[in-house]
Amino acid sequence: MNDFDEKIAIVTGATSGIGRATAVKLAAAGAKIAAVGRNQTALNDLKNEIESSGGIVQIICGDVTIESDVQKIVVETVANFSQIDILVNAAGIILNGSIETTKLEDYDSLMNINVRSVFLLMQMVLPELEKTRGNVVNVSSVAGTRAFPGVLAYCISKAAVDQLTRCSALELAPKQIRVNAVNPGVVITDLHKRAGMSEENYQAFIERSAATHPLGRAGNPEEIADLILFLASDKAAWITGATYSIDGGRAQTCAR
Question: Of the residues 107, 154, 202, 244, which is catalytic?
Answer without folding.
Answer: 154
